Amino acid sequence: MAKKILIVGGGLSGTIVANGLCRQLAHQMRQGAVSITVLGTSDKHLYQPGLLYVPFGRIREAELFREQKKVLDRRINFFIDPATHIDVEAKTVSTQSGRSFDYDYLVLATGSRIRPDAVPGMEEGAHWFYDLDGARKLRDALAAFEGGRIVVNVNAPHKCPVAPLEITFMLDEYFKARGLGDKVEITYTYPIGRLHALEPVGKWAVPEFQKLGIKSETFFNTKAVDPKAKKIESEEGVTLDYDLLITIPPHNGAEVIENSGLGKAGWVPTNPKTLHREGSDTVFVVGDTTNIPISKAGSTAHFEADTVVDNIASLITENRWARDYDGKVYCFIETGMNTGTYVWFNYTTPPNPGPPSQMIHWFKLAYNRLYWLSARGLL
């Protein structure tokens, strides 16, 4: 009987898993011994890291999208049919259309979603760049802004962990280029006692902020936003005035995960090495969907997906485990409009940001173009 591989989610990690398995199991697919199905929510695939550049007019919106069918290998069964319930005991997934899909191996790649509605006043009083509509509105707000107090407010958990630092550096350079550097005051807030969850990155950011005159407020867990008074208040009792509020909203996982009883707030308890859902050996979890306490970043999704591809293929063809995931993450960090640095780390090696350079900035811009090869599993 043919082995059925079902992938719930058509983002980066789900797409890489599907395409990678197509290549590794090409013979078995030709023989009808393996089928691969992807359940997605859209006919378009979005390059999410590109949203960072939209507010500054540094990327065209058309560059952010491809047709999902063209990103996936043609041998993959792709359905735009969001999952509504996942039953890991019965090994079935129910969908919005009323269909039911069974599986031998399940890959949960359901991603994350922003929740500005979780903080009173945030939807009405803040801007963000974590979806296209928000990035467009922020672009208009920046173009109209002629000076005043900007608060960059970071909430947890969130994906793209270095993006809050990136937009802060980019804002500083953007306004200086417009001749408004002395009319703009930027304050960056973070919910714990440093500027980033990764301690070496937080320490690295301190002198970089000081050099640019960027203020910061740590231990700032957002309680509420007052859009009329233009104030943002923390649970710790600190209130900041703003003329423009840019927030990184808190994130949750997909509703289907929580509704199916697979994880609190949509995050699935995941073995950090095998990437199995805890308590299962046929359900794998990749990308933002995991509850692993590492960065919810595109590179994390990529390296996890590669691990899952190797293991499912090996289990089907050789009935053996291939390798564990070592926690590898690699992130570029824009430090302005024309310079950047990077960090890489894993479970045993901490990050160590280097000096920013123009060359690394160009590397990141190059990767923006190469993303589509990455999604197809060719990079």
Automatic annotation (TrEMBL):
Q: Which residues form the FAD/NAD(P)-binding domain?
A: 4-151
Task: Name the Gene3D superfamilies on file.
Answer: FAD/NAD(P)-binding domain
Q: Which domain of life is it from?
A: Bacteria
User: What Gene Ontology molecular-function terms does this entry list?
Assistant: oxidoreductase activity
By its UniProt entry, which SUPFAM superfamilies does this protein fall under? FAD/NAD(P)-binding domain
This chain belongs to the protein called Sulfide:quinone oxidoreductase
